[in-house]
Amino acid sequence: MATRNLASADAESWPEPQPDWDKAKSEWNEAWPVHVYFFASAYLVVSVVAGYLLLTSLARPGGSRTSMNKTTIGLNAMIITFAATRALVLFVDPYFSEGAFPFVVTRLIWSLGIPGFTASFSIMLLILLDTTKLSLAPPRFQKVGTIVAIWIVHVVVVTTTDLFMMYFGEGDVRPLLVFCHMLFVLYGALVSLGYGYVGVKMRGNLKASTQGHHEKKQDKKLRRLVVMTFLSSLVGISVSVVNVYMLFSQFGAYADVKFIQPWTFWGVHTCLRFLEVSACSLVLMLFFRSGKEGFCDRCRWWRRNISESEKAVEPSYTTTVATIGERRSTVGALQT
């Protein structure tokens, strides 16, 4: 099996094609720095916001000892892992085009952010499931500890794949690279479908609890939360679709082209970066709305009024809505 020195690995030896950078940057003109610095700054803002939430969680009474504070810390730590690594690479060596640092370093930093993206999306889904008393899987799988374990496995997989690709060469281990991409796509798609499931259930509960009543301020705020949940599902599915396209097009490891067309590269990566930033922003917005000023406090009003429409609600819906208020003390720990 052919091997190479990791220190000598470069972006050109990576099996997934890239643009002819000199030609591409000449064609893009100002579109290239706009793309790089806009998204680098957006990722930086996301990581700063998540860092602030992380610090305030640690400063709360009890620190990291309560279960919900641990959930909050885990969520924001994963967002920081993803957004900060993306911002660092885009600022220092965007898409490995400058060669400012050894390729093995920048490639690993970029790849290590991917597990943080899926983990943060998953933890926010667990918070929504816990808040609404819904279930998608056996209880042992709906725990932050399980998500952290999956994150560790994902980190090991992406790190091993990158190192193998750089050490053994593209011809020997490209299937491992494809497997790594498919793992991300499938897991991300399942979590995104979970958001859709929660959105459907929440919308059904909302309709049942307000049937025959004039829409009030609380209803509108709850409706916005439902919309954001559906948007999270849509964005997550879109990320998976774009990654599938990249896997089986000229971006993939088995593509028979040497260089990607400049504007195709710019357009696809602009779309993907936009979706990633949108996903992180939606997770943070859902987190804020799950706090004191969000969904959970307004459920007290929802619970007082649900008795008037119990006959129109299926038993599982009634149970779900009735128990949301009882979760008040637990979910209150999410306030930042």
From TrEMBL:
Kindly report the protein's main subcellular placement as a broad class: membrane
UniProt entry keywords in alphabetical sequence: Membrane, Phosphoprotein, Signal, Transmembrane, Transmembrane helix
Annotated Proline-rich transmembrane protein 3/4 domain ranges read 11-287
Annotated membrane topology is: Multi-pass membrane protein
Kindly indicate whether the keyword Transport belongs to this entry. Answer: no
Indicate the transmembrane segments per the record.
36-55, 75-96, 108-128, 148-169, 175-198, 225-246, 266-288
The protein's matches in Pfam families, at most eight in alphabetical order, are given as:
PRRT3
Q: Where in the cell is it found?
A: Membrane
**Top-rank taxon, per record:** Eukaryota
Annotated region described as Disordered, given as residue ranges: 1-22
Q: Which PANTHER family match?
A: G-PROTEIN COUPLED RECEPTORS FAMILY 1 PROFILE DOMAIN-CONTAINING PROTEIN, PROLINE-RICH TRANSMEMBRANE PROTEIN 4-RELATED
Q: What is this protein called?
A: Proline-rich transmembrane protein 3/4 domain-containing protein
**What is the organism of origin for this protein?**
Littorina saxatilis
